[in-house]
């Protein structure tokens, strides 16, 4: 038990003495948070059609779908997505084939 207590003491002392730059950006040895845009594609909204629940995006390659860059209309995964953006906005998004329909399942304004 004494060896275990001593090991904890040494570990705690070394951690407290470690400069924040060596412990991570938060100074607590935590891993930095992953970007919320990881795995997302980027594009520009060119048109919204709330009546049909569609959003048109001029986008780069969609790696997860194996699609090249193009301008394409997608089904919006939810109606509130269309309220968050306007034509001309740069967005980060995830598009997926949902039941045979290309659908934006996640959308974030890049500004």
Fold topology:
Elements: H1 2-17, H2 20-23, E1 41-49, E2 54-59, E3 70-76, H3 79-84, E4 90-98, E5 101-109
Parallel strand pairs: 3-5
Antiparallel strand pairs: 1-2, 1-4, 2-3, 4-5
Instruction: Name the beta content range.
Output: 35-45%
What can be said about the biggest beta sheet?
A: 5 strands, mixed, barrel
Summarize the amount of helix as a percent range.
Answer: 10-25%
pLDDT average, as an integer? 78
What's the architecture of the largest domain, going by CATH?
Answer: Beta Barrel
- The CATH topology of the largest domain is given as OB fold (Dihydrolipoamide Acetyltransferase, E2P)
Q: Span between N and C termini?
A: 55 Å
Q: In order across it, which strands form the biggest sheet?
A: 1-2-3-5-4
CATH class of the largest domain: Mainly Beta
Helix count, DSSP H or I runs of 4 or more residues: 3
List the secondary-structure elements in sequence, H or E.
HHEEEHEE
> In terms of per-residue confidence, which ranges show pLDDT below 50 for 5 or more consecutive residues?
4-35
The total count of strands amounts to 5
Structural class by secondary-structure content:
alpha+beta
Radius of gyration, whole Å: 23 Å
* Whole-number tally of structural domains: 2
CATH homologous superfamily annotation of the largest domain: Copper binding periplasmic protein CusF
Globally, the shape reads globular
């Amino acid at each position: 038990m004494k060896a275990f207590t001593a090991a904890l003491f040494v570990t705690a002392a070394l951690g407290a003495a470690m400069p924040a730059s060596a412990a991570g950006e938060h100074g607590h040895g935590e891993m930095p948070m992953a970007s919320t845009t990881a795995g997302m594609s980027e594009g520009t909204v060119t048109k919204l059609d709330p009546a049909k629940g569609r959003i048109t995006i001029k986008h780069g390659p969609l790696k997860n779908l194996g699609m090249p860059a193009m301008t394409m209309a997608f089904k919006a995964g939810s109606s509130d997505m269309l309220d968050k953006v306007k034509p001309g906005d740069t967005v980060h998004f995830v598009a997926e084939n949902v039941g045979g329909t290309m659908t934006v399942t996640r959308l974030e304004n890049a500004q």
